[in-house]
Each structure stands twice: as structure tokens, then as C-alpha cells.
Amino acid sequence: MKKKPKLPMERASWLKNLFLTVSVLLAAAPVLAQTKTITGTVTDSTGEPLIGASVLILGTSNGVITNVDGNYSIQASPENTLEFSYVGMVKQLVKVNNQSVINVQMKDDAQVLAETVVIGYGSAKKRDLTGSITNIKGAEIANKPVANPVSALQGKVAGVQVINSGKAGADPEIRVRGTNSINGYKPLYVVDGLFNDNINFLNPQDIESMEILKDPSSLAIFGVRGANGVIIITTKRAKEGQTRVNINGSFGFKKVTDKIAMTDAEGFKLLYNEQLRNEGNPEYDFAPWTGNTNWQDEIFQTGFITNNNISITGASAKHSFYLGAGYAYEQGNIQKEKYSKITLNVSNDYKVTDNFKVGFQFNGARMLPADTKSVETALRAAPVVPVFNEEYGLYTSLPNFQKAQMNNPMVDVKLKANTTRTEIYRGSGNVYGEWDFLKHFQFKVMYSMDYASTSTRKYTPVIQVYDASVEGNIATLGNGKTGVEQEKQTETKVQSDYLLTYQNTWGEHSLTATAGFTTYYNRMEMLNGARTQGVGLFIPDNPDKWFVSIGDAATATNNSDQWERSTVSMLGRVLYNYRGRYLFNGSFRRDGSSAFSYTGNQWQNFYSVGAGWLMSEEEWMKDIAWLDMLKLKGSWGTLGNQNLDRAYPAEPLLTNAYSAVFGTPSAIYPGYQLSYLPNPNLRWEKVEAWEAGAEANFFRNRLHFEGVYYKKTTKDLLAEVPGISGTVPGIGNLGSIENRGVELALNWRDQIGDWGYSIGGNLTTIKNKVLSLVQEGYSIIAGDKQQSYTMAGYPIGYFYGYKVEGVYQTEEEIANSPKNTLATVTPGDLKFKDVDGNGEITTADRTMIGDPTPDVTYGITLGVSYKAWDLGIDLMGQSGNQIYRTWDNYTWSQFNFMEQRMDRWHGPGTSNTQPLLNTKHSINNLNSDYYIEDGSFFRIRNVQLAYSFDPRLISKIGMQALKLYVNIQNLKTWKHNTGYTPELGGSAIAFGVDDGSYPMPAIYTFGFNLTF
User: Average per-residue pLDDT in the chain?
Assistant: First the structure.
């Protein structure tokens, strides 16, 4: 068949396609010719092959990892640069050029051993220290939804127990290595050199690093403030380079996920009528009460939370500045609760000459704390009550068996919402000058000041509720009068530091010596006043009118409190090492305090010594390939405690005593007496502490281990001795407490190609014991139910009561059991154990039934990264402690029942754990382990997934870095107690008590971090 000739247009199209194809192939040929195979071997500093080293083409995601022989093969062009990296070693960049074989010998990363940490009055290489100091980078806490930066430390640091609260803006409780005193447990905070007792005014985004000091060699330099541990906070300052602007923000919501199981309306009716029958009373008529209200659902809300921050930094060779501003807002778990904080951080440093530098730093904050409400009424109110009466537009009153003692929970939540308004202004800062002279010397002078002003106004409104039992169906709560209260409190701290430091290395010796003189002044003033409307005009529900000048002067009341205290100190410290392996740390501080000026014991010396041995630097250990660093260390020292509940323990206040009538005409002369009689030799509490342990790095610094055994003994406890037969009590140094245990920390990190992973854990054991207190058999009793005891031979604040063996089932069992002399028992009552074995149940059978201090606390950190993705998971928990439940153990009103009371005893064999329902049987309300619950728990504390955008991509729109993340806090808690949370703080002598704890919510946030 004859071929059909191509038309001119078709022929032209065919030739065009052929030309384009050939052109593409010709253009690609040089590129294909330039790409070649690069091979090589990656070894460590000793020549051993590295397995799993990353070989990456710089600026791309193309890469490979070395095999078991350290070999690799990768396709690259001469223009490419290869990046070689391995955990614990310095990254190396090699340009391909004309090479086809590239062998690389990696070097150990000296920064792993030369990490610098902040210590008291200076800084030092961590390898040169002999104590226990944990460094937390600011990045670890920056993106967490916390108001107080310390909250983010939970589960991260061995030896540090952080007890968080679910309340919006609430401060956590911190206990470092247990409870050291009956007079307090709070650690000292040092913010940019200034001593402080709280850091809730700081923005977590403004923190560069936090160092937690726990051992005597690092704490003794703080003298009377070091006994409970020290947390040093360094805020951000500019680093030399170009000006940068960073904007980060997060928003999300919080929700209560664990609620307390209570009976519903039907369950309440069943149990309450059974209780009335057991008490010999007629059943209650519930006909008018048709509600079925879950009060927890009514008061709780899904709250909104946001944190936002912007910072500007710039630095040159001579001048640097940092400016950061933040805003945080958080709604509480209960409706109408809200908290907000505005922060400002400014710092400026200027090099006047090469050896003289000056600067200043300032942190400011305005905080509006939440008017937090209690959940107790929501747990106790009867569920049969309707929430609201639509006809009258009023909340419904509770039944007559409750309304005299408590109100509809929504009255507090809605009608009394934000009737307490508090404003806190806080400013903290310093100015300094630093002079380097004679090559090895540095002299630094710093003046610091902190000022806090707290203003509170409270309003008492007139509240009406619907009550069908009163005439007109409307009842007015309380006395029907409005009232206002005002309080103003200011606190000032002024500190000056003069420090001389000598640093030199010669031959095989290295020495850093510090000497200093410091002063500290603290003053507090508080004035309070209140008025009601009296016979005057109604005080309006308008915050602009909530001032005491508006009330009736005839109803005025007032109160005040004030004190001032000062400390003068001299200090010195020596950090020495010989041949880089034999370490010595020594410190001394002499404190003089006005608190004991009346006794002549105002001066006290504190000192410590520490020694370490870097065994891995010995020649005979350098051939151990899998061991990179091994250090043995130990320290001993004395610390002081000034955290007392009175400013001047040696100078008691005068209190009103008896009055007398004298003269003609007769006149009444008031009499005064000392509130207590101080011992004339009264002095500070003192802690003697020691520890011994080891640090080690293994497998090319991928595995890090730290472990110590510690022991702290607090002596000369300040304790009050009650007066005999109404006489004035006394106070003296009359006791001692011991805390001891083990701290372990283990961390592994590795990189395999594009994948990176890490796993870390810490564990702490705590054994607390009161060694002596006043005299044998003396006890300090605390708590609303007087359940917390402190006595020699037992842990501080232990729970004291009767042990329960079960529930009496029959009269025959009662007859065959030890006689209960406390009350006449019947079947269904709790059966107490005869502890002393004398055949009777008496008060002598009370014993230790629980310990609020956990035996073990622990934390686990997991991390996985792949290219631009990062996943981090924090886990934490504790075990071995008990909780004492009190919120349901009162008889001043009828409460709703816990769901577990459905399993109550109501006949032989029906229950051996829950007693019968009968409020007249007070035996069941005595302190016993019926109210003890297991305080152990395990929590998924934090989960964060983040994505970092490719810098090459975002640089086209002017950005340097952009990260997006999602974070979940308190995702899940496995616990054994019936309350909202197993985290329960308290005072030094009464903690771990569930008196109606506030819920711990799960918090879900979404955020971004942008730099340009």
C-alpha cells in the first residue's frame, strides 16, 4: 500500500517534537555526567568505624547512613557539600569537588563535657563540679501551657517533686529532696542574681535556662536560704549577630476529664431514706423535688487558654539588647473564672571598653488572678434539686436538710462570680558593672530590686433564690446587706552584690576563686479594711464602687500586718582541678540576720567541701572504647533555713491579755502579754547534708548516667511548746528531721539517617523521718480533722488513726471481738483493729495509717524526630504515698453520697468495706484508714508534635524559622484515689489531704513559633 505523504504542517510538528527531545537530552547530558557515586568510610577519633553515621547532602533531605564497617555510598555532584554527623561528635562539612572517595574521621564534641551551668554567684563547667545540678533549657518549657515556669519541671528532674494545681494561674508546690522542716519547704529562686520566693511574674518564653541545685557543695554558698534547694533562672539576653524578631503564640482549650462518681437523684433518695430509717426517723418526702442534677456538669466549663509573646533582639560587638512582651489568658475549670498576665522583659548590655561592661535587666508583670470557686458544694449538694426556676427567674434553694448550711452551687459560681478582684503589679530588675583587670581578675557590682503591689477588693452582694417553703417563694440569703472589703499589700526586696573572681590555668592546675559581700533587705506592709451598708444606702454591684469609703462608717473594721528584715553576708568559693581529673570544690558563707538580733545569735557560718575524680582521664582507662567519661563525686556541707512563719521568732508580738480597773473615777487599763516565750539562745535551723555518686557517658556520649545517694539532717528545728494549764507557750530549737534517698537519671539519644530518637528517665526515692521533737511523746497535730501528726520516729505529717479490719456483720461477731470502748457499736459499723493487743479498742489503738510523702517519684521522656517532624512525650508518676480524704467526712449537714456508698452494709454479708448509713454512729467518722486512699499514679504529662518548615522555602518570604505544633497536657492519668487528682499539696506538716481538691484538666493547644 502506498504511504500517505505527510502534510507540511504535520511534518513541521514532527520535526519540532524531535528537536525538543534532542535538546532536552543534550541539556541533561552534562548534569548526568556531573552526578557521580561518592564512597568512603567514617571513623571516630581512634580510627574505629562508626555505625549509623549520617551522610547528608547539605541543604537537601537526600542522605544515607554508614553500615557496620562504617562505609557509605551516595550520589552527589562536585558542587554538593556532604554533611557528616554522629551523636556526641562534631558535625563536619566536606565539599565534593573532584573527589570520588571521601573518608572522614569524626572528633568528639567537647561541648558534651564542657557544658557550662549557672551556679551561685557565677558559672562553671559541669565536668568541674562535684555536686548535683540539673540544667533545663528554656526551649523545654517555652511551648508548654503553664502560667508559672516551674510547673513545666514536673517529672523532669530527679529529686524535685512538683505538685501542680488545676486552678487557672495557680502556683505549684516544689519540694526538693523531701520536706526538711516543720516551718516550710519552699526553695529559693534566684532570678538573674536576685533572691526571690516566687517566679510567677516571669514569662516562660523569656527564660534562657533553669538550674536546679540540690547538693550541699552547690547550696552552702546561699547560707540561710539554701536548705530547701535553689532554682536559678537566667532570662534571655541578646547574642551577637543580626537583629531578630520572634513571635510565638498558642491557643486551645481545657476540660475536666476525670469527675468524681456521685449518686444521681434515684440513688440519693434510696440511700437517704435508708439512712433516716436506720436513725429511727420517717422517710423524707421527695415529691416536690423532681430534679436529677449532676452539679459537676453544671459548674464546669470547657475553658479557653492562650499564650502569646513577641521578642526583639539585637547585638553587635559592643552593644546588645533584648525586649520581650507577653500576654497570657486562661479560663478556669469552673464557669466565670479567668486569669490574665501581661509581662515585659528588657535587658541591655554595653561594652564601654574591652574590659569594662555595664548593663541592666528588668522584668515586669501585671497579673489578674482568678476569683476561684470551690467544687465542694457541687459534690455535696443533693442531686434532686432543679438548678433554676424559670417562672421566678431565680436559682432554686436546696432542701431543708441542706439549705441552712450551704447554697445552690450556682449561687457561688454565677451570682458571686468575680466578686473578689485582685490586681498584682510586680517589677524586678538590676543594674550592674563588670570590670576585667590584671588578666585573671573580674570585679562585678550588681544592685537589684523587686517591688510587688497587691490590691484586693471584695464585694458581698444581696442574693435571692427560689424557695417554695417560704412566703412569696423568694428567700434572701445571709443578712440581706451588701458589703465591701479592701486590702493593699506591698513587698520590697533590695539586694546588693560585690563579687571578685580570679580565674587561671597554669601547667596542670586550674583554679576559679570567688569572694563576695552581699546585703539583702525585705519589707512587707499590709492594710485591710471592711464596711457593710449598715443603715446607709445599698452598695451597688459595680466594681467602680467597691471601696470602703462607700460603706457605713459605723460598721468599719480594719487590720494590718507589717515587718522588715535584713541580712548581711560574706562569701567565698574555690573550684580547683588538677590535671583535669582531680576536682575540689569548697565554699564558705557567713550570714548575719536581723531575725535573731535579740538573742545575740544573728551570725552563723555555713560551709561545704566537695571532691571528684574523673577516672576516665586516667591513662589506664583511655583504652576503654565504650566509656567516654566517668566521674566519681561526693560533697558535704551545712545549710541554713530562714523560711519561718514569723519574721522575728526571737521577738514575739504582744497580745491582749487581762484588763484591770484603777483610779477614781475608775478607768479600765488593758493588759498585754508576750504571745510566746522565746528561748534566749534561739538560733537558725541548720541542715547538715552529704551525698556521694557518679556520672558517666557511654557509647560515644549517646548514653548518659547520673546517680547519687543523699542524706540531709535538719537540726535545731524551731518548734513551739504549748503552755501548761493556759500559760504562755514557748519556742525553741527543739527537734531534728532526716531525709535520705537515691537519685538516678539515665538518658540515651541517637541519630540514624533522617531518624533521631531519645529516651530518658529519672527516679528518686525519699525516706523521711522525724528524729526528735521537743520531748518524747510530743506531737504536732494539724489538719481540719486533726489527722496529720508530726512525732519523733515517724515521717513528717503522717496520718494518724485507727486501722479498719472490716465491718461488723452480726451481734455474735461483736461479742467475739475486742470490746470497743469508744462507742456502742452495732452490726454495720467499722471494725477497728486492736493494735496494742489488750483485748479492747481504745484511743491507744490509734497508729500510723498513712504517709503523704511518696517512696518513689519518677519521670520518663521519649522523643522521635524524622526530617522536619518532632514528637515528644513526657510521662511521670509516684508511688508509696497515701491520701487522706476529708471532704465527705463531716456531719454539719447532709451531703450527697459517693457512688461507692451504694455498696454500703445493709444486712449481714452485704458489705465488709462500706459501713451502714447512720450519722448517729460517730464511730464511723473517727479518723481511720477507711478514709485512706492510695496516692500512687501514672500520668501522660505532655505530648507534643511539631513541624519545622524548610528554611530555604520560608526565606523567600522573609522568614528565618517557622514551627507549628500541637500540644496535649495531662492527656491521661491512671490513679487509685476517688478525688479529682492525686496531686495534693498543703503545708509542711499537713499535706496529701483531699479536702475537696480542684480538678486537673486536660489541656489541648495549637501554636506557632516564627522568627524573621
Answer: 90
Report whether 181 contacts 988 (CB < 8 A): yes
Phi-psi region of 996 (alpha: psi -120 to 50; beta: other; left: phi over 0): left
Q: What percent of the chain has pLDDT over 90?
A: 74
Q: Please, are residues 339 and 332 in contact by the beta-carbon 8 Å criterion?
A: yes
**180's grid cell:** 526538711
Q: How far apart are CA 424 and CA 367, in angstroms?
A: 5
pLDDT tens sequence across 762-794: 999 999 999 999 888 899 999 999 999 999 999
Residue with cell 551561685: 120
Rounded alpha-carbon distances, angstroms, from residue 663 to 243, 657, 669, 671: 81, 20, 10, 16
Q: Which residues are bridge partners to 235 per DSSP?
A: 207
Closest alpha carbon to 424 in 460, 459, 450: 450
What single letter denotes the amino acid at residue 25? L
Q: What count of residues does the chain have?
A: 1012
Residue 839 buriedness (CB in 10 A; 0-12 / 13-18 / 19+): exposed
Judge if pTM exceeds 0.70. Answer: yes
545, 670, 814 from 802: Cα distances, Å: 53, 46, 17
Report the DSSP beta bridge partners of residue 721. Answer: 730
For residue 802 the three cell numbers come to: 485507727
Task: Name which of 916, 903, 701, 699 is nearest 111 in CA terms.
Answer: 701
Distance (Å, whole) CA 663 – CA 642: 47
Q: Per-residue pLDDT for 128 more than 60?
A: yes
Alpha-helical (H) ranges within 173-278 are 216-219, 265-278
For residue 496, pLDDT beyond 60: yes
Task: State the Rg of the chain over Cα.
Answer: 35
